[in-house]
Task: structure prediction
Amino acid sequence: MNAWPGVIEHYRPWMRLAEGVEPVTLLEGNTPLIPLPRQAAELGASAFYVKYEALNPSGSFKDRGMTAAISQAVHDGAKAVICASTGNTAASAAAYAARAGLRCIVLVPRGKVAAGKLGGAIAHAAEVIQVEGSFDQALEMVSTLAAERAIALVNSVNPFRLEGQKTAAFEICDALGRAPDWLALPVGNAGNITAYWMGFTEYHSRLGSGLPRILGVQAEGAAPLVLGHPVDKPETVATAIRIGRPARGEQALQAARESSGRIIAVPDEAILQAQQALAGEGLWVEPASAAGLAGLQREVAAGRLSLAGSTIVCVCTGHGLKDPDIVTTRAAKPRVIPVEMDSLRDLVDR
Ligand code: F0G
Result:
């Protein structure tokens, strides 16, 4: 059997993990790079792909980083892990901790976590603690506790998270045969943009795969990297990136600078429209995941970006199933009919 073994086994020579680390894996990674020719045409690009990270085991890109962080934590003798989360990190940590038989504690901002994410963390029996504050405050709390106790912190301040997450850049280069011209992705705590840039630069220095320009996209109500200062009360419909003090903000700005790219902010409405556009292509992603496309659309429409002749990859970080309420509460309710053929015909023929 020549099946996909998960990101650690597949890319181990490229990953800085301690020697002898046994992978704790759910066979994450190897996600599809899906061509969307209609979006390419609309953006004026020669090719447009979605790196569909929703198809990881827990439904988001976090699994790439979590396999590395949890494997390393087990190797180091940890019995418990902890994280702060807007939801996806919590669900992923819970899944991998369950796999490894570790205690898992997650702190989430009360009332601001989408149902599918909270459900995931609970399903895997993580100890879920709701904080009456923001993600940023929760991250400060877990960082303090992890320094006091023998509990491994598995937020993306943990360097092993980035070692895992950078493998998405490798997969993109492997699939295209080179780096794309632009990579667009949402930016919250800024671990992922940092990991991608690390991945692309490492692959390029060894294989000459080229480097993309990076477009990082924040929501307007949670755009500290665009404003140039922390945001105390971040607000956005894209709750995954509702973050006002990104832990790796400096590195995100560096990735944008070094790649000749940029970090921009888009309004919530643009994010929801991009989510709808992707759904119209058959890809249901959670709102934050649509930020990359929203950013591209906005820059192109404003004449700040010309994509002629370019190959674009947009990272869709999490599944739409994570946050079903966003679409169901905004759409008209499905019609109800009695079990009568005439009622059905009436509705269909209208
Ligand atoms: N997209 C989704 C779906 C996310 O869940 C996150 C972050 C991001 C994008 C941004 O990635 O933080 O590395 O810049 N979610 C974290 C969490 C904060 O707790 O699940 P980032």
User: Anything to note?
Assistant: The pocket of F0G is lined by residues 60, 62, 85-89, 156, 186-193, 240-241, 286, 288-289, 317-318 (CB under 6 Å). The chain has a mean pLDDT of 97.
